Amino acid sequence: MVLGVFCAVVVVPACGRQGSAGPSAPASSALVSSASASLSQDELYAEAERVYRALFELEEDAYAAGGAESLPLEMNQYVMQPFAGLEAQSLSQVASKGWRSQPGTRSWIAYVRRSPEITREDSVATLSVCVDSSQSPLVDANGAIVGGGYNAHVLFFKYDMDGSLKIYGSTSEAIDSCNGN
Fold this sequence. Notes:
By secondary structure, the protein is α+β, with helices and mostly antiparallel strands.
């Protein structure tokens, strides 16, 4: 019942995982400090929302095309590990199973909310979003519905080594509705 932003279909169990910072942590931390200091909270969250909405459009295109064998290059400007790996896994699964968004439909973003009270190690911004794919389900090669509905996501952002704000982690769950959340 999961569609849209990452974690589609059966990849959901991996959605909340987060990787270690690895050997580049000191340089990354210094970059985050200088980059985040130059933006106000409003500017930071506006950039996080821009990144998310741009990624969402690329995801919609990828699902409509039947997934992808690997992460489309244009998505790299919006995601980093470990989230990029989950995104690639999800799109690869859709491609390998022959699934796609029901032709002529698109999921839509019901809401995007700033969620600074939700934090994760190294995150500089957090967004809570709800995607409605109830009218744009995933279908198999025979047109049978294999996924769709409403999905609540929490997205964690930080600065990549290139200074770009990117999604690096998430949680996701299927819900009954995007109303009242």
